[in-house]
Amino acid sequence: EAPNSKEMMGVFHEELDIYDEDRLTLLTHLREALDQEQLVLYYQPKLNVNSNQVVGMEALVRWIHPTRGLIPPDEFIPLAEESGLINQLTLWAIDRAIVDMNSIKQAAYSGTVSINVSARDISKMSFVEDVKKILNRHSVAAESIYLELTETAAMEDPKVSIASLTALAEMGVNISVDDFGTGYSSLSYLQRLPAKEVKLDRSLIGEIRSSDSAAIIVKASINMAQALGYAIVAEGVEDEETREYLKEYNCDTYQGFLTCRPLPLDDIRKWLNKNYS
Ligand code: C2E
Ligand code: CA
Ligand code: CA
Ligand code: CA
Q1: Mean local confidence (pLDDT), 109-120
Q2: Where is the EAL domain positioned along the sequence (predicted)?
């Protein structure tokens, strides 16, 4: 039998064993969480910069752990990605988001929803069929969902990823490029993706007020992306002054704590009723 990693590392790395065990336990619990409805989607509205009309919602997953309480996605999505559990998680999220948004659809909100997907989702062509099945099951138009992914995710396995994204886009699904302005994101690579929308990362947006160069980068990114035909979303807008800059730059839409934090479905329903009826 091949030595396992514990044996290879020897007795001097006991703390790594604990770490490994912890991750394994976490993964087991995450699997159970997905089966037992401990994962919930919170929603954050996407708004028109000028009118504050709701043009969509982004679904953001949280784990309501029975003993540890609310666990943010950054603490378990990477584990779901490494283990492959992400495929099941993403399909669950798409399904749930459609059901949830249908239940709060009203005059002020059309039911359009954005779901975050990972490299591992789009690197399988079967994902396209899986998404189609969900849309059919709920008789929902492909145009009413946005799938958000980073450029890095699309680059991990570009051949298959671009093929599956193209198939999704041809179906009518909106492709959205997340976290633009971080990492290796570039407008020239962007052109290879069948994207409708580009989301400017909140690290850039948060600096508009304090940094002239950040403001220039945001303004130029908006102009270039719009000239290339993409819709623009500014993420992480936390104050009115930043929204004013975005108006000036002709940015289309925004999300941020300024107007609404991500909230559970019931609270989003209340928020819509309070502000838009
Ligand atoms: P993201 O897709 O870039 O989501 C935006 C994050 O910014 C969310 O964090 C949101 O709560 C936060 N945010 C929104 N407005 C503001 C603001 O005004 N100020 C600040 N400081 N933050 C703001 P969250 O919900 O913790 O999600 C973190 C990341 O986890 C997401 O980043 C996304 O990459 C990932 N994630 C969340 N849900 C899912 C999911 O269902 N599937 C996958 N694959 N990833 C997900
Ligand atoms: Ca996102
Ligand atoms: Ca983002
Ligand atoms: Ca992110």
Answers
A1: 97
A2: 23-276
Q: Which residues pair with 149 in a beta bridge?
A: 177
pLDDT band of residue 127 (cuts 50, 70, 90) is very high
Interaxial angle between packed helices 14-35 and 86-104, expressed in degrees from 0 to 180 and rounded to the nearest 10? 40
Pocket flag, ligand 1, residue 240 (CB < 6 Å): no
Percent of the chain with pLDDT over 70: 92
Whose CA is closest to atom 8 on ligand 1? Answer: 60
pLDDT at 10 over 50: no
Whose alpha carbon is nearest atom 21 of ligand 1?
236
Within the chain, residue ranges assigned H as helices are 5-9, 14-35, 77-83, 86-104, 119-122, 126-137, 151-155, 158-171, 187-190, 202-205, 212-227, 240-248, 265-276
